[in-house]
Amino acid sequence: MIFLLNSLNLTTVKYSVEKCKIVAGLRRLVLDVLKPHEPSNIILALRLSEIENVEGVNLSLSEMDQNTETLKITIVGNNMDFEKIKKVIEDLGAVIHSVDEIVAGNVIIERVKTEQD
User: Fold this and answer.
1) Which of 79, 110, 113, 73 lies closest to 92 in space, CA to CA?
2) Is position 16 within any domain?
3) For residue range 79-97, what is the model confidence (pLDDT) as tens digits?
């Protein structure tokens, strides 16, 4: 075995191993978030989109009152770090009320309606 590894180009071996590596982890999060009116929802969406491994952010206003806004935030990516996402949200004065959907693994499985729904 050592003879075979020594006879191969190590760069090729390293590339082949990295190419086969499958990145999974968190793929999609749907969050119910309460935040003050400022900073704007645009700032929140842009800050979330700057997090490593986040590929897209969808932010929808669900409810608004005199002091706060309730948002539904969908974040998609590959191997996302929940703690980094939570920190950005909290640093902007918002709080996560609930995590309404979590998708993890190599494949995003879409929700299927059942008779109970």
Assistant:
1) 73
2) no
3) 999 999 999 999 999 999 9
